[in-house]
Amino acid sequence: LGMGKLTFVAGVAVGYVLGARAGRQRYEQIKGQASRLWASDPVQDRVGEATERVKTQAAPFVADKLGDAVKAMGQQIRGQQHTERLPETLHRGTDGHLHADTTGYGPAGDRLP
Predict the structure, then answer these.
(1) Is the dihedral of CA 63, 64, 67, 68 positive or negative?
(2) N or C: more exposed end of the chain, with fewer CB within 10 A?
(3) pLDDT tens-digit profile of 11-38?
């Protein structure tokens, strides 16, 4: 069975189960058949192939997109550091740390209120 046919068969089975009025016994019968179908070697082979395809084809794409997002976030954070608004009694030194003015004078030498 191809993936399209398998999807169609699974959809028909689910639709029948949801729409059936045959009661619990018929539901259990259909559920058992669906479980056996899902556990069958051909279906599990296809699932394994699809999983490998996703790992080999989608993973690099996702990693690239994630890397781009992390870089963009880093640039945004760096940009916010340059527009930082601090109270007059604090300034960021050349070492990148915050420094408090304990002398009573601001960074420009003006007396603070």
Answers:
(1) negative
(2) C
(3) 888 777 776 656 677 778 888 888 888 8
